[in-house]
């Protein structure tokens, strides 16, 4: 998680772990919380949508971080910060659950 790079259409981020291994992730969505005065980004490993289509009951890994939208050219070009507070995690999970449960919040691609 040490590094993040912008990919072709800004729907993807590449995370580099402490050992230099890179993994590609697809951005689900970003949002701002007035309560915490932070912006958040949620993403899942690239290609997960194909796995979900084949096996809808399979659990999908979703990662969430806060980020500073002013720090880079876009949310996929800024530093990511871990969410360490349990109340903050609960708020992010609630937003995610709303996104998952409400079809009107998804794009036509979903």
How large is the count of helical segments? 2
Helicity, as a percent range = 10-25%
Distance between the termini: 26 Å
Strand portion: 25-35%
Organism: Oenococcus sicerae
Family: Belongs to the UPF0473 family.
Protein name: UPF0473 protein DLJ48_00175
Pfam families: DUF1292 (PF06949)
Topology of helices and strands:
Layout: E1 3-6, E2 12-16, E3 22-33, E4 38-45, H1 48-54, E5 63-67, E6 80-81, H2 86-101
Antiparallel strand pairs: 1-2, 2-3, 3-4, 4-5, 5-6
Family: Belongs to the UPF0473 family.
Protein name: UPF0473 protein DLJ48_00175
Pfam families: DUF1292
Outline of this structure?
By secondary structure, this protein is α+β, with helices and mostly antiparallel strands.
3D structure, described in words:
Belongs to the UPF0473 family. This is UPF0473 protein DLJ48_00175. The chain has a 6-stranded antiparallel β-sheet with strand order 1-2-3-4-5-6, with no helix packed on it. Helix content is 21%, strand content 33%. It has 110 residues and is of the alpha+beta class. It has helices at residues 48-54, 86-101, and strands at 3-6, 12-16, 22-33, 38-45, 63-67, 80-81. The protein has 2 helices and 6 strands; from the N terminus they run ββββαββα.
């Amino acid at each position: 998680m040490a590094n993040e790079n912008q990919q072709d259409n800004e729907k993807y981020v590449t995370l580099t772990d402490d050992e230099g291994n890179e993994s590609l992730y697809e951005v689900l969505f970003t949002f701002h919380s007035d309560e915490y005065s932070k912006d958040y980004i949620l993403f899942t490993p690239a290609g997960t949508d194909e796995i979900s289509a084949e096996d809808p009951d399979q659990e999908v890994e979703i990662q969430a971080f806060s980020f500073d939208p002013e720090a880079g050219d876009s949310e996929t070009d800024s530093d990511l910060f871990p969410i360490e507070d349990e109340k903050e995690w609960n708020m992010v999970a609630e937003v995610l659950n709303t996104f998952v449960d409400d079809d009107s919040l998804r794009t036509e691609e979903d």
